[in-house]
Amino acid sequence: MKVIAIGNQKGGVGKTTTAINLSAALTLLGQRVLLIDLDPQANTTSGLGIEAEGSDSLYPVLLGECGIREKIQTTRLERLSIIPSSMDLAGVEIELARADDHLTRLRGYLQGLKPNDLFDFCLLDTPPSLGVLMTSALAAADEVIIPLQCEWFGLEGLAKIVHVLEQIKASGANPDLKLEGIVMTMYDARTNLSRQVVEEVAQYFPEEMYQTFIPRSIKLGEAPSHGKTIFEHDGLGLGAQSYLNLGKEFLTRRGVALANT
To answer: What is the CB neighbour count within 10 angstroms for residue 111?
Structure first.
């Protein structure tokens, strides 16, 4: 099981949209996915139409009150499981900050899942901040994918998150952490701005930047309000096709054979 953090400390970049729909795309491509919502706002949870209680989140797990497998829930989507979030998870920021192992505690729990061969990938949807939950996710991940909106402010945020990744590696909490990819979101081919931002990212991160761009799409924005993935809400649309292509590129990078879709 590979652990992938979907991270960007800036809000509104398509992070949760990517966590939900990349997870769904991977299941359509035959992969078993565990999606963990680490954001107390619980947008990934509600975006899948799930109403979770505080006790359903990772909160008691991170406090050592129960095991992580107890919190895994199946979803209506075949091969997709989730550990939901709730506002209670916000309290873990304070509780974990007091612990000496606050950076590595989540990593330990996820490492414990790997020998069980329950999942092919575990995707972590992180909060739009640089707090304890975000840094814990980075310390727990094998790889990081950064969703980046096609705007100039996005480039500033990219520099900051890359710096944080280097700090996590240098601290010894996760020296093997890899910036696996950058996903360009809210792309509009009609504007010079989108093209210029893509060119800038490609210049500095040519290997990391995914060739699949996620378009600016009303349907992508609508889907979470219905508690649906883009494949359920507008399965034949450009947004669904883009996330399916992203899933294929994600697997191809890892040498995974693609299932028929």
So the answer is: 13
Q: How far apart are CA 68 and CA 62, in angstroms?
A: 9
In this predicted model, what pLDDT tens digit does every residue of 160-173 receive, in sequence order?
899 999 999 998 98
In which element (H, E) is residue 108 found?
helix 105-113
Q: What are the chain's domains?
A: 2-253 (3.40.50.300)
CA separation for the pair 162, 166 (Å, rounded): 6
* Residues 254, 82, 171, 13, CA torsion sign: positive
User: pTM score > 0.90 for this model?
Assistant: yes
pLDDT for 114: 86
Q: What is the pLDDT of residues 231-249, one digit of tens each?
A: 999 999 999 999 999 999 9
199-226 tens-digit pLDDT: 999 999 999 999 999 999 999 999 999 9
Question: What pLDDT, on a 0 to 100 scale, did the predictor assign at position 196?
Answer: 93
Bridge partners (DSSP) of residue 178 are 143
Question: CB burial class (10 A; 0-12, 13-18, 19+) of residue 221?
Answer: middle
Partners of 209 in beta bridges: 182
SS3 sequence, 239-253?
A: HHHHHHHHHHHHHHH
What does the H/E/C string look like for 159-211? HHHHHHHHHHHHHCCCCCCEEEEEEEECECCCCHHHHHHHHHHHHHCCCCECC
Cβ contact 179:152 at 8 Å: no
Q: How far apart are CA 123 and CA 141, in angstroms?
A: 9
